[in-house]
Amino acid sequence: MSSLPSLSGIATLVRGACPHDCPDTCALLTTVVDGVATKVQGNPAHPQTDGVLCAKVSKYPERTYHAERVLTPLKRCGPKGSGRFTPVSWDAALDDIGARLQAIAQRAPEAILPYSYAGTMGLVQGESMDRRFFHQLGASLLDRTICASAGGEALVHTYGGKLGMRVQFFAESRLIIIWGSNSIGSNLHFWRYAQAAKRDGARLICIDPRKTETADKCHEHLQLRPGTDAALALALMHELIRNDWLDHDYIARHTLGWEALRERALQWPPERAAEVCGLPVQQIVELAREYGTTERAAIRLNYGVQRARGGGNAVRAIACLPALTGAWRHRAGGLLLSSSAALPARRAALQKPELLGARRPRTINMSTIGNALLEPGGGAFGPRIEALVVYNSNPVAVAPESAKVVQGFAREDLFTVVIEHFMTDTADHADYVLPATTQLEHWDIHGSYGHTDVLLNRPAVAPWGEARSNAQIFRELAARMAVHDAAFAAPWFADSDEDLCRQALDPAQVDFQQLLDTGFAHLRLPDAPFAEGGFATPSGKCEFHSARLEAQGINPLPDYLPNHELPDPQGPYPLAMISPPARNFLNSTFVNVQKLRNAEGRPLLEMHPDDAAARGIEDGALVRVFNARGEHLCHASLNGRTRAGLVVGLGIWWRKDGANGTNVNELTHQHLTDLGRAPSFYDCTVEVAAA
Ligand SMILES: Nc1nc2c(c(=O)[nH]1)N[C@H]1C(S)=C(S)[C@@H](COP(=O)(O)OP(=O)(O)OC[C@H]3O[C@@H](n4cnc5c(=O)[nH]c(N)nc54)[C@H](O)[C@@H]3O)O[C@H]1N2
Ligand SMILES: Nc1nc2c(c(=O)[nH]1)N[C@H]1C(S)=C(S)[C@@H](COP(=O)(O)OP(=O)(O)OC[C@H]3O[C@@H](n4cnc5c(=O)[nH]c(N)nc54)[C@H](O)[C@@H]3O)O[C@H]1N2
Ligand code: SF4
Ligand SMILES: [Mo]
């Protein structure tokens, strides 16, 4: 079964793919000795991976064989949330879960809610048999908005889809704007291309409220206030217009709504944006000059910009820039936020939405799960949520306004199943915890949102303990349901994980045999996606003005929308707070891997020395971070990385590791973004005091 020849007769190398929610989607090589994975490396044959992995996934064997891995099904034996469980057999667990779900489904199938996100990004373990199961059941649908939907919808309304520059061509750019991205921490393999460009003489400019390690390595850093990027983009347009750094031919042939956008941008002189963004006027003027006068100008935008109220508009405004200058004409110019729409995934074949028949279940937004669990109608029309099946996600730690999420998960009348590797904050609140396989133990297919290759993940080792893959667990649950409902006996509930891999991609575009042979395949795509226009919008143009947004009653032109919560120096919560990713964690994954946890130290709040001094707080002091929603205890770090008025709590620690059993999401709220119904994690105000 395994792929490459064995080394020295005892070690085998197995090709795989990194499953994590990271734009890099690395190709993995796992060394297996006597059935045990001893080492995980980057596959040197895969160009984007180039034999290099981040510090996190280099520790994948340590995570897989972790002493705290859940290895058998567990049933709750203490009060909800106590974390007290007793091992049970798979049969006992699945029989009981099947019966409980069946009983609810007979009355009110929409009272059952699946909750999953990107613990694995795999098409099979992330969005195949699970969807078939819940579609057949008629369960509530989940709106998966917690990460990227504001920016994603912005791209759809501007370019027609999540499409952009191909990452390898950043190496040829002359100017790279790294906008809302800590690339060294979160997008390492892009950073390698940016460094190649830098060695070749390119200018690197970082736009980020935090002085990240990426900002340290750029030539220029615009340290703006969070949530003000649209104002900056509009001022850049103002300068492009005033200096006529425009590609009039590209605008005329490939864009829609230029006159209206021009009028709006002319209302944003750099002085006005400087005021809103908290930046020097000259820095904005200079950035516009560099952007407007450099031919191969590229923007690496990341999701950091869209976690505030106006995040969708900000992405739309920024996405207009390369169409104004015609940067798209060159493959080393343009913009990349996500290129995931290039993947020829056959999601309908994998998920079978037709199993819903005539039923149209309600949709619950995962970002407001706190409210949804507490409100009578699940936060929408229909019944109260009675059962939750959580997999590939740790909502008790990662969803906003934790106090409400915890209160919801603690409901004694809620039946909760969590499929996990570890006893996360969410698993602690389960009625049943089911042990899941890791990436080293199951099959999967992966696209990427940061490059344009497709990867196959083969199992390198047998599942440890009694772990089963997500797909297998849903197959077996379907078999339990089939006893009462013959629809669950249909042949598609018997497809194996490997069958699902074969169904996942359009065979006309990806040769499965090639995936088996080499582990990855390049998609056949043009080098420069929009060199000749060809946007996937209804008009075929880059839509500055969106008729589709207008039809929804939304401002059709990109605009600056102030944050939900603006720090008021005279008010009770005078500091803005952002909580971006920690370099050694992947959201809340890896928090329990000791070497990575040691590298992060402990939960910290970065503060500006002036803000700390005004509160009598010294470096390393225990502080109380609080607002009307709650309080989080952690240690102050005066490391020079924030601006005055801004505090930064790098995430996402497990709540149970917090000094008072909380993490930063104790402070975030459930207000949504302008587009995409997403959380606005980085649009939050707090006060800090010595504890
Ligand atoms: N090491 C590591 N890598 C990760 C993750 C992780 O947790 N750890 N998470 C993964 C996930 S889920 C995702 S979605 C991706 C991308 O996730 P992103 O959220 O894009 O993560 P970052 O690249 O760290 O970029 C966020 C940057 O945006 C900055 N920022 C915050 N607010 C604003 C703002 O209003 N404007 C601007 N311009 N910048 C702002 C932050 O200071 C931070 O440096 O990364 C993935 N990669
Ligand atoms: N304050 C704040 N909150 C945030 C963010 C932030 O920047 N600040 N970022 C947000 C973003 S961008 C995102 S994407 C979300 C991420 O939120 P989640 O998608 O919940 O990501 P993780 O916290 O990594 O949790 C994933 C879980 O899936 C499990 N898992 C992994 N593989 C498998 C598998 O094969 N099977 C099963 N059953 N389980 C598996 C892991 O053990 C892990 O516990 O968090 C969001 N929350
Ligand atoms: S987390 Fe990202 S950088 Fe690390 S191995 Fe996975 S894809 Fe590569
Ligand atoms: Mo994310």
Automatic annotation (TrEMBL):
Organism name: Comamonas antarctica
Source species taxonomy: Bacteria, Pseudomonadati, Pseudomonadota, Betaproteobacteria, Burkholderiales
Similarity comment: family membership: Belongs to the prokaryotic molybdopterin-containing oxidoreductase family.
Segments forming domain 4Fe-4S Mo/W bis-MGD-type: 11-68
Record PANTHER family: OXIDOREDUCTASE YYAE-RELATED, TRIMETHYLAMINE-N-OXIDE REDUCTASE
Cofactor: Mo-bis(molybdopterin guanine dinucleotide)
Keyword annotations from UniProtKB, A to Z: Iron, Iron-sulfur, Metal-binding, Molybdenum, Oxidoreductase
Pfam families linked: Molybdop_Fe4S4 (PF04879), Molybdopterin (PF00384), Molydop_binding (PF01568)
Protein's name in the database: Molybdopterin oxidoreductase family protein
